Amino acid sequence: xxxxxxxxxxxxxxxxxxxxxxxxxxxxxxxxxxxxxxxxxxxxxxxxxxxxxxxxxxxxxxxxxxxxxxxxxxxxxxxxxx
Length: 82
Fold this sequence. Notes:
Blueprint: H1 2-14, E1 21-23, E2 26-28, H2 43-72, H3 76-79
Antiparallel strand pairs: 1-2
Helix pairs in contact: 1-2
């Protein structure tokens, strides 16, 4: 997980603006991405941080919340009584 977060944040730091979105005729360099160290400012880094944070939170919620909810249920012996 740490390597994925680092890869995402490194785009916001080191993007050099050389590559564009792939198209059928080649790379579209009309809207290139520039990282913080190449004069692009904080906009890309901020977007990458928000994305990494939201995916991390969603992953932990998907893994941890069901475990917590299961521990709040009544034991099976009590649920089956009528």
